[in-house]
């Protein structure tokens, strides 16, 4: 996995955490769920990149 991919995935996860916290603070369950979804998406991308890296070796 390239460094730029790692940075993008970390940024997406961080954005998801911020959105989740904002949803909690404003009592907005939809925004909170969107933040969680963004974090899961980031985790899945990272896992996919790790699998691709494992097969390259």
Description:
- The protein contains 2 helices and no strands.
- By secondary structure, the chain is mostly helical.
- Helix 1 (about 5-25) runs antiparallel to helix 2 (about 30-55).
- The longest helix is centred in the last third of the chain and has 28 residues, at about 30-55.
- The protein is elongated, with a radius of gyration of 14 Å.
- The two termini are about 10 Å apart.
- The mean pLDDT is about 90.
Brief characterization of the structure:
It is built from two helices and no strands.
**Helix proportion range:** over 70%
Proportion of residues in extended strands: under 5%
Number of helices: 2
Overall 3D form: elongated
Distance N to C terminus = 12 Å
Rg over C-alpha atoms, rounded to the nearest angstrom: 14 Å
Structural class: mainly alpha
Low-confidence stretches: none
Topology pattern, helix = H, strand = E:
HH
Using DSSP, what is the number of strands?
0
Summarize the biggest pleated sheet. none
